[in-house]
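Regression test attached.
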Amino acid sequence: MDFLDEPFPDVGTYEDFHTIDWLREKSRDTDRHRKITCKSKESIWEFIKSLLDAWSGWLVMLLIGLLSGTLAGVIDLAVDWMTDLKEGVCLSALWYSHEQCCWTSNETTFADRDKCPQWQKWAELMTGYTEGAGVYLLNYFLYVLWALFFSFLAVSLVRVFAPYACGSGIPEIKTILSGFIIRGYLGKWTLLIKTVTLVLAVSSGLSLGKEGPLVHVACCCGNLFCSLFSKYSKNEGKRREVLSAAAAAGVSVAFGAPIGGVLFSLEEVSYYFPLKTLWRSFFAALVAAFTLRSINPFGNNRLVLFYVEYHTPWYMTTRLGKYPVLEVIVVTGITAVLAFPNPYTRRSTSELISELFNDCGALESSQLCDYINNPNMTRPVDDIPDRPAGPGVYSALWQLTLALVFKIVITIFTFGMKIPSGLFIPSMAVGAIAGRIVGIAVEQMAYHHHDWIIFKNWCRPGADCVTPGLYAMVGAAACLGGVTRMTVSLVVIMFELTGGLEYIVPLMAAAVTSKWVADAFGKEGIYEAHIQLNGYPYLDQDEFTHRTLATDVMRPRRNEPPLAVLTQDSTTVEDVETLIKDTDYNGFPVVVSRESERLIGFVQRRDLILNIKNARQKQDGVVSNSVVYFTEDAPQIPASNPQPLKLRRILNLSPFTVTDHTPMETVVDIFRKLGLRQCLVTRSGRLLGIITKKDVLRHMAHMMNQDPESIMFN
Amino acid sequence: MDFLDEPFPDVGTYEDFHTIDWLREKSRDTDRHRKITCKSKESIWEFIKSLLDAWSGWLVMLLIGLLSGTLAGVIDLAVDWMTDLKEGVCLSALWYSHEQCCWTSNETTFADRDKCPQWQKWAELMTGYTEGAGVYLLNYFLYVLWALFFSFLAVSLVRVFAPYACGSGIPEIKTILSGFIIRGYLGKWTLLIKTVTLVLAVSSGLSLGKEGPLVHVACCCGNLFCSLFSKYSKNEGKRREVLSAAAAAGVSVAFGAPIGGVLFSLEEVSYYFPLKTLWRSFFAALVAAFTLRSINPFGNNRLVLFYVEYHTPWYMTTRLGKYPVLEVIVVTGITAVLAFPNPYTRRSTSELISELFNDCGALESSQLCDYINNPNMTRPVDDIPDRPAGPGVYSALWQLTLALVFKIVITIFTFGMKIPSGLFIPSMAVGAIAGRIVGIAVEQMAYHHHDWIIFKNWCRPGADCVTPGLYAMVGAAACLGGVTRMTVSLVVIMFELTGGLEYIVPLMAAAVTSKWVADAFGKEGIYEAHIQLNGYPYLDQDEFTHRTLATDVMRPRRNEPPLAVLTQDSTTVEDVETLIKDTDYNGFPVVVSRESERLIGFVQRRDLILNIKNARQKQDGVVSNSVVYFTEDAPQIPASNPQPLKLRRILNLSPFTVTDHTPMETVVDIFRKLGLRQCLVTRSGRLLGIITKKDVLRHMAHMMNQDPESIMFN
């Protein structure tokens, strides 16, 4: 594979918004590995270096786990403090959140754990009063003001310093993992700004979550540590193995769900996921979860389990979309103004979900648990029978219905904004609210009509036969499943979140049903939809079932000029330069001669340019008339003639070929499984044309009656 | 794709012990799918048929889940009854197991739940006495006798009716899923005999488990239902998608772990596992788990969770191995004789594991919990501090040590026998015993030396700082992980088994550590080792890192006669027949002419034989001198000449080619990812040679300094 011995540092790298060639990256890595293995026998130092190289994969995983766990912990603490800052301040220590502030106070009982003298609401601090309409309005006003300030700061920072920091990042990471290059998307600057603005955006109270963005943050960490090891920094294929594992670590810290993280990376995000990456992801997710638990941002492992929020990937194009800062301010304003009065939307969404999931034990003081108790009840508290709902439950039902409408509408508008935002928590919240409403309705029906056929066999009077909290949990899983089309990873994340292994069967049933229902509306999940909207060259796993052949897709088409090829021993430097200037192809096939059209290899445009430029500068006698030789030996040439330019070392001697009769489904399969960038088409050994990944994607779009021009990048 | 319009039913099928061509199977399915889609527009009936076809995948999953769940329930019930039959009989109802027998008795208290008058041990029934050395010896003798009878029956049934029913079956299923054909391995006969003999083998008390065999049973169910739908029965590729899902259902019922089953199928068993199969496996596993729970063989969901046993795949070749029946009888005899006196080996292994995992609560009456209580203890029962061990614990330690040695030795010998046998439970038992011993040792150290540095910071006197049960759980996971090299699926199965989500971090750490340690001894898990021992053509996921090229592997080698090829329009029927007689290749490349050697396609040996035979019988004028044409149009021939034979329809016009310079690592990657059977090698459009899957496997064995002849099948 002599074409891999790169003469100049830039040969073999890719340009921005281009697709990598997985087979080539793999070859390069094997080559590197072989060299190290050979060298390791030379000296002890080289042997130690080879050991370090072999373990560097695990080391990178360890570092990713540590850093992303730490960042997640810091983000949790900061969000906690800033969310409370919207309401008031801790006088004993400004950097304490409401809960921490009242922990330090010894005077409080469990019931009054939220009330302590050190914590003062803004209005109280400014006016001295604690009650009254004026105080309420002042608190309301300051709450909205803080929210606007946070969101303004977030959108401005994103706009000025790191435009790539907006959104959840999952569709882009999916595209990057499939082999696309987006420079800077996982850079240090993005990491820094995304971390800071994520805190601001979540604290502002917008209907968005931190889970998707945390996956992006973890991938940025992964990219950062890749740059420390040439094994990963110089090989785009190996780098993507690390990024897959980093995505797993990101979900692991976002939900406190290490197994769910590995499965999410496998099912939803990754493209190539060999078993080796599975083990490494597992390790990274483990370290990250462990680090986060050591930091223990809430002093309460249970709460970490529930501190779940959202991903968002859909960029809706509204008129406001042209003015991103204004858009964020308006949406934040509306969110804050509408959210404050309703208790179910004022609190953080994760607290809401936590309350909706919970069952009404005897200790529960929530409005949702205002049932009319049977005075004769002598049962233990964990076996409360179904009871008629009290007035509190009915008012809670109304508020929940309003909250449901509000959440659905505001989430749709929040998703497209230019700030870090995620989709998980809003979806789960919508599902949980709907589930709880249905659950309470079924419970009351079962109580009042326990002779109906559906309740008859399993719902005797006085029995505890309907658990509204379980309906909320199943609803959350179903809604999230419908949005993302996750199945296995969804169920695992849900039971890692709730600790409820016994509900595995209803959760699985919800996941499968929501997938069926959602698939009936359209096959793609929200991430795929977003990838399509952005025109990324992503080859998804759907089956291609049309009866077209390679010959229908390859270029040149009929009536088009013939394919731009080089010959192995009759092209001059000038010819090559003209070809490069006249076309913008990424590479050129090399044939024996224009008459025989027999293929011998493929050469990259970038490598050609670099080599000719270099030869003209440094190599004596290489002029425009010099003949370019791709053969093994250049013939002896009289000294009067210009010196030949030998370029066999940049020629890929094993280009991928298919025959013109190959069905396109096979071609799509080959592109998908081998991660090709292009493929040459031959018939009986003669070169006929070329198919690039973009051609395949355009053809697929065309076959699905979509606009082929929606595929924008190469 | 005209070569797919099969003129005779047998064209396009594979022979026994051959490898399938995944790309071709996929093409055929797409073709079938297209035809149905076209037809569905013709009439309502066709439309309904196309809907049925689309949903048949989910229907097959439902059927597999139902049948494998039912079979697992029946096996559980039968094993329970027959295991107790070795000790005694229920007088009130002969078909009741010991536990069921005493359930029906109202006289028993919880402590005496195992003692009831209806249940009589054999000696009691025969002699009337319940105690004494003679009674003990008679019970011992009858226990051994029943065990010998069961195992004799099992090995005889396997030997006479279904030799494929022995072992765990997982290595073979892995090989089948990778594309190998073993006819009858998943047949109805195997299903029946394996189910019956599995019950006998487990009941005989041998050190083996039912989990691996249950995977085999579920796959047989999958294969059975495939035959109901031509979509699956006629396409080996689609059939394997169903079998992957069936394997997941098998693990799901074996452990009561549906998610673990899906992951096991993904990580350990399957070869091609697209997302669609993931969803279907998930559904099949769900239905199977649900069915099993509905049957609820133990009347106790908790017990199903623990009723785990073993897989075995290692066929050791002992002298006894030549006499399988004698071997089984001897091993059963030794097992029964040695197991009866030690309480930790007499009971079923799953009960043993369950006891080892459990913590010593206040109610625990086990010998393992014979600690010296502090008389001043006033703590609640779930927070018992570390205590000094009593004499019961010390004698339990000795018995456990003996049981550990016995289990390790007897399991090694049991694995190779010709009866259905699994590996999971013996491995877990060995790990759990070792873990419990270490746990008790650490606990006593911590109690007596709580000032040592390692205990100082977290182990104050009187605190509960060491839980021996957790050590047992981690030990079981580590041992199982070391044997099978599972990671993610292992942890998920462990926590689905134990319901202990909180121990996820130690379990993950154990899985990763045991994988590292085991990998240091050898890269392959027990299933891969078994596949190698049997010489199956399995291309594993290990990376190929040698610097060889396609030209080094292809045949013909130097000094070998040239490649056997057909020409497109100058070979006669007689030439073809001679070629078929003289060679045993599976197919032949077709070239333009022997001079140009330009490749136009590939034709299967089997299809050639069938077509020529058929033409000679039915087609007038086809004689030995007839020219075989693979071109699109045969030229007009004078009536005096023999009629030509047109065979373009059996010609594969898109054979897979690589150049001779292609590195072998790329070739291996292509074979693995695309599931090829063979690949042609060209240079500048000229055909040079051929590489088959067997050539690749031989080359890999050669490069790893193994005997290339160990690859036995094609």
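Expected vs. actual: identical. The longest strand of chain A covers residues 686-692.
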